[in-house]
Specification:
InterPro entries: DUF4232. Keywords: Signal. This is DUF4232 domain-containing protein. The longest helix is centred in the first third of the chain and has 20 residues. The chain is an alpha+beta fold. It is 26% helix and 23% strand.
Amino acid sequence: MRAARKTWKTYTLGAVAVAALLSSTACGPSGGTEDGAASQAPSAAPSATASATGSTPSEAPSPTGSAKPSATATAEPGGDSKDKAPACADPDVSIDTSYWPHDSGQHLLITATNDTDRACTLYFYPFIYFGQETENPLPPMESPAKAVATIGPKQKAYAGVKLFLGGEKTETYESFGIAYRDPSNNNDSAPIDVAFSKDVQFVTVGRKPSVTFWNLDRSEVERFVFKAR
């Protein structure tokens, strides 16, 4: 409007009077002129934005970035998160063995303790071998854990072994082999020989022994062990 008014000054007084009349009738709803509405617009826009977003334009939140996917990945048990602790290896854990009370030695509890100062993950189930067998570990009892067994320093994870059923032909062993899974490089560690604890000393193994998945919850392992047939 201001640029137009500069142009109108080159016309006659009658034209100026007509322009003034048109300008006086072009009022806003509140009775102000268009000049008043235009001059208020720049200051009104930021206040409207602040009211809608709760912040000034410079403080407006940025579009969704990596924070949301990262939180989702870490919230999914067993998910493929880059932040997951590396796989446990032989030097990382110590292994202990025990029987359940009143069990007659038919089932073995394996306890893995993290001996390092960092977390590591026990994947799937332990590869257990008896005697000279090093190619075919015990099969799982179809007992997947509810979450991947990541253990911090001095923390423990558990697995159970069904050794034999009543009336089976059995063999006796004073040690066993154990190996660990590492999905990051699709590799399995070589089994190492582990002696049984003083409370166990030896085990009697039947024709079809099997093992549970690693689990942070000992009671969950016990549930699978004693329902397995």
